[in-house]
Amino acid sequence: GIIFKVQIGARRDLDLKDVLIDEVHHENLEQETEDGLYKYTIGHFRNYWEADKLKKGLRTMGIQLAWIVPYK
């Protein structure tokens, strides 16, 4: 099926892998690398609208570049 995550950034100059080592405390914050970009996502949702709630909450907190990304 499809999983939805909320991406909060994609940067070439911000590698947080050393900060995200502790899988227990950062299980919902993930870093992926693609085309030289470090991409950061939060959450795993099977329902688009649940992901949308998180996206809207993050935007309210000032993270204006939060958006939903589907994964198969």
Structure keywords:
18% helix, 72 residues, four-stranded antiparallel β-sheet, 4 strands, alpha+beta
**What spatial order of strands do you see in the largest sheet?**
2-3-1-4
Q: Structural class of the helix and strand makeup? A: alpha+beta
Low-confidence stretches: none
Secondary structure: number of strands: 4
Describe this structure in words.
With 72 residues, the protein is an alpha+beta fold. It is built from 1 helix and 4 strands; from the N terminus they run E-E-E-H-E. It has one helix at residues 48-60, and strands at residues 3-11, 29-34, 37-45, 67-71. Strands 2-3-1-4 form a 4-stranded antiparallel beta sheet, with helices on one face. A hairpin with a 2-residue loop joins strand 2 (29-34) and strand 3. The longest helix is centred in the C-terminal third of the chain and has 13 residues, at 48-60. The protein is globular. The termini are close together. The mean pLDDT is 86.
